[in-house]
Amino acid sequence: MKPDLKQLLAQVASGQVSPEQAATQLNDQPVADLGFAKVDLAREKRNGFPEIIYGAGKTATQICQIGKTLQATGAPVLATRVSAEKYAQIAPALPDAVYHETARCLTLGQPLPAAQEQYIAVVTAGTSDLPVAEEAAITAETYGNQVKRIYDVGVAGIQRLFAHIDEIRGATVVIVIAGMEGALASVVGGLIDKPLIAVPTSIGYGANFQGVAALLTMLNSCASGITVVNIDNGFGAAYSASMINHLAAQKG
Predict the structure, then answer these.
(1) How far apart are CA 111 and CA 224, in angstroms?
(2) CA angle 88, 90, 96 (to 5 degrees)
(3) Is 166 exposed, middle or buried (0-12, 13-18, 19+ CB in 10 A)?
């Protein structure tokens, strides 16, 4: 995405973007080499969405520098797996950043415009799954999707699910997030005619094996139309769901 010149110059003047970073944007280079990272500036052109910052393992300074580089493109910036302690270090350098505490995500800039009718349903088995669910919801919203959150409707109290089934069925794509034995994905998959992306979480007691039990349940589901992502990967589920939802919006 070619940066808006006035916006880029304003960011340089305010110190948000260094002259070197601005020069990279104006030259339309596919990669910004920061020394410790090579930021992919062409990912949106190739994949539909810009590069996302995976915050775990990165220092606050590194996240700030990558964030400023991506912000200069004019696209919304998303950083996942950012702890509250790390955000406290980031906030002075990125005062425009919004921290989503439950999701452990940081966003910069305005989200992409959302389709008016199509939406993604994010469904969780329990309250303990909320961090993964909110990571999915914030990711989807950042990249231009309406999201309906349907939380704590697991199979232990299945009547809670049936109270929301029409809302779930109305979604373009459904993300189901569950730990323990992970049965919710199979149940929902047998009740809807839309793509379902299942996310196993690491929630559960010992034999859950930090999400492996839920992962195997979802992979072995007898309900058709279920795709499974990795344990606790709310981001990955939302990225795929966003691609599906945008395709539906284009056809609609």
Answers:
(1) 33
(2) 105
(3) exposed
pLDDT in tens, 228-240: 999 999 999 999 9
Nearest to 99, CA basis, from 41, 146, 60, 144: 60
Evaluate whether 32 touches 24 at the Cβ level (below 8 Å).
Answer: yes
Phi, psi of 213 (to 5 degrees): -65, -45
What residue spans define the domains of the chain? Answer: 5-108, 119-251
Q: Give the model confidence (pLDDT) of 47-92 as tens digits.
A: 888 899 999 999 999 999 999 999 888 889 999 999 999 999 999 9
Decide: 193 and 180 in contact? Cβ < 8 Å: no
Query: How would CATH label the architecture of 119-251?
Result: 3-Layer(aba) Sandwich (3.40)
Strand-pair partners of 53: 79
